[in-house]
């Protein structure tokens, strides 16, 4: 009889673990993430070009939630939010990449060379994998004339069974790196 009780308990435990695996039932609750960026670009020699980077405008529709955690059937049950300033995150990342490429960053808004931009989308969603998506508009100006403007998009996917804050952070950092490395 005791053997049957043990088997019954193991069966229930197995089902509970499978539910966690397929439904992410063990990971309910808002994910609060902090966004960071570190360049992987090797430092290059100075180009002796000075650039002013304007703070990017955040034009996302939803500025509160940047993603969702969903179960195996794509039913959302947990939001992903950030305490980070998205505009500052993107602008600082661009400055870091430009410095690594050999550009000098100016604090003078009257600089001859300027880069401005708009943040159109930042999202990170997870079911069995995390997908970070970023879309930004970037304009390069010389003497206040736009010489180049383009919308950049990048998506990064990583296997993610548990929906940890770190997995959302990593997928978004990789997506931003994909855009700024272009």
How would you sum up this structure, described in words?
This protein has 182 residues and is α/β, with parallel strands linked by helices. It contains three helices and nine strands, in the order H-E-E-E-E-E-H-E-E-E-E-H. Strands 1, 2, 3, 4, 5, 6, 7, 8 and 9 form a nine-stranded mixed sheet that branches. Strand 4 (65-70) and strand 5 form a beta hairpin. The longest helix has 22 residues, at 2-23. The radius of gyration is 22 Å and the shape is elongated.
Number of separate strands: 9
Instruction: Tell the overall outline.
Output: elongated
Low-confidence stretches: none
Helical/strand content category:
alpha/beta
Largest β-sheet summary: 9 strands, mixed
Mean pLDDT: 85
Helix content: 25-40%
Q: Quote the beta fraction.
A: 35-45%
Distance between the termini: 67 Å
Please describe the structure with a list of short key phrases separated by commas or semicolons:
single chain, elongated, 182 residues, alpha/beta, 29% helix, 37% strand, nine-stranded mixed sheet, 3 helices
Which helices and strands occur, and which strands form pairs?
Blueprint: H1 2-23, E1 31-33, E2 50-53, E3 57-58, E4 65-70, E5 76-82, H2 86-100, E6 104-106, E7 113-126, E8 129-142, E9 145-159, H3 165-180
Parallel strand pairs: 1-5, 2-6, 2-7, 3-7, 4-7
Antiparallel strand pairs: 4-5, 7-8, 8-9
């Amino acid at each position: 009889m005791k053997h049957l009780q043990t088997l019954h308990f193991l069966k229930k435990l197995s089902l509970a673990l499978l539910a966690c695996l397929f439904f992410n039932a063990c990971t309910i609750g808002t994910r609060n993430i902090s966004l960071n960026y570190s360049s992987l670009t090797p430092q290059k020699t100075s180009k002796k070009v000075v650039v002013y980077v304007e703070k990017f405008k955040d034009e996302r529709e939803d500025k509160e939630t940047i993603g969702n955690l969903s179960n195996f059937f794509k039913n959302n049950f947990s939001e992903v939010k950030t305490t980070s300033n998205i505009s500052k995150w993107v602008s600082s990342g661009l400055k870091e990449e430009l410095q690594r490429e050999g550009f000098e960053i100016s604090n003078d808004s009257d600089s001859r060379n300027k880069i401005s931009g708009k943040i159109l989308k930042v999202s990170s969603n997870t079911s069995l994998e995390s997908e970070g998506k970023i879309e930004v508009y970037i304009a390069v100006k010389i003497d206040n004339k736009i010489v180049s403007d383009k919308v950049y998009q990048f998506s990064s996917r990583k296997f993610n069974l548990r929906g940890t804050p770190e997995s959302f952070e990593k997928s978004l950092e990789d997506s931003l790196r994909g855009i700024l490395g272009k």
